[in-house]
Amino acid sequence: MLRAFELEGAEVCWPYRVELGGEEIEQIDGVIYSDGLACLIECKDSVEKTKVEPIAKLRNQLLRRPVATLGIVFSRGGFTEPVQILTRFVAPQTILLWTGGEVEFALRRKHMRQGLLEKYRHCVENGNVYHDLTQGTKP
After folding, report:
1. Structural domain contains residue 138
2. Residue 90 is part of a domain; what is its CATH number?
């Protein structure tokens, strides 16, 4: 995921560990800086739908970051209904959801950065963190 954004001109930080007092407290899948947005990344490469645990983990990571930091969860298998409900109520943190189908759609169109902006704008305008890029997006 990081490389796809990097190829479109975004600045990325590759996966890393955060330590405190010599002890690992976090493993970060990556960070994307694009078009004024700073996004902490969580990736799930499974055919099964992603459950609540990774969302809770990312929310806790976001609590230790500036409030303007977004969270993004990429899940090849999509998300359970409880995840889609929970992510609407994690304010003030914002966690945007990307399914495998959306990633494939955006990759084919070189639309990763634009897709991120579209998802973010939809969230700002509608208060909904899930916006399906494959519906109504022009190639």
Report:
1. no
2. 3.40.1350.10
User: Taking the mean position of all CA atoms in its chain, how far away is CA 116?
Assistant: 9
DSSP labels for 78-130? Answer: -B-HHHHHHGGG-TTSEEEEEEHHHHHHHHHHT-HHHHHHHHHHHHHHHS-S-
Domain that includes residue 27, residue range = 2-126
Q: Note whether residue 136 is domain-resident.
A: no
Report which DSSP code applies to 33: E
3-state class (DSSP) for residue 44: strand
Q: Give the tokens for residue 62.
A: 């976001």
The answer to the question of residue 38 being in a domain is yes
pLDDT tens string for the chain (139 positions)? 999 999 999 999 999 999 999 999 999 999 999 999 999 999 999 999 999 999 999 999 999 999 999 999 999 999 999 888 888 877 777 899 999 999 999 999 999 999 999 999 999 998 888 899 998 644 3
Q: Determine the 3-state secondary structure of 5 from DSSP.
A: helix
Local structure of residue 137 (DSSP, 8 states): -
Q: What is the identity of the amino acid at 119?
A: K
